[in-house]
Specification:
single chain, mainly alpha, 55% helix, elongated
Length: 67
C-alpha cells in the first residue's frame, strides 16, 4: 500500500482506531519512515505466467521462487 494511502487512513482514524499520541509521533517522524522505505525497497515484483520457468533453474525451484 502506498505511503500516502496509509497516511490518509491513519489521519482519518486518529482518535478512533489510532491513539492520537501515536499519530502525532508518526507525523513527527514521517520523513524518516519514507527514507527507510526508500532505502530498503524490494526489487520490483516479477509475475510469471502459469507454468513459466525462471531460466537456469530446475522446475521445482522455479515454482518455489515464483511464490
Amino acid at each position: 500500500m502506498p505511503h500516502q494511502k496509509c497516511r490518509q487512513i491513519i489521519l482519518e482514524e486518529r482518535g478512533e482506531h489510532f491513539d492520537p499520541d501515536v499519530v502525532d509521533a508518526f507525523l513527527a517522524r514521517e520523513q524518516e519512515f519514507i527514507a527507510i522505505s526508500e532505502q530498503y525497497a524490494d526489487a520490483p515484483t516479477v509475475y510469471l505466467a502459469k507454468n513459466e520457468m525462471i531460466p537456469d533453474q530446475p522446475p521445482q525451484q522455479a515454482c518455489e521462487s515464483a511464490m
